[in-house]
Amino acid sequence: MADDETSFLPGDGPSSGISVSLTAGTLQAIRERVGKRGVSAYLEQAAQRQIERDNLDELIADFDSVNGPADPDAVAAKLAKLTGTAAPETGAAA
Q: Distance of CA 35 to CAs 32, 64, 90, Å?
């Protein structure tokens, strides 16, 4: 870990070894994808993606606490517009 005076963003700084326990099936699936020598890099990328998701979840929760939850019909309409699919007919679209 970094000392108290040094702070790094996810993905930055020197590498540090730790011990991690995984189920045999999870480790097998990772090794099948990346080989024995790619496990650390794979787990680093997975951890970074999870941190990004956690940060996004916090941002959405903060937004919802200020503005209220998003209208499901408006979300469906925007998603349909982004993906080029038909919006489900559940009510008014935004």
A: 6, 42, 47
User: What's the CA gap between 87 and 67, in Å, rounded?
Assistant: 24
Q: Which residues of 64-73 are buried (b: 16+ CB within 10 A; e: fewer)?
A: eeeeeeeeeb
Q: What angle do CA 16, 27, 37 make, to 5 degrees?
A: 55
pTM of the model: 0.69
Question: What is the structure's pLDDT at 60?
Answer: 94
The rounded distance, in Å, linking the Cα atoms of 22 and 40 is: 13
Q: What is the pLDDT of residues 61-75, one digit of tens each?
A: 999 999 999 999 999
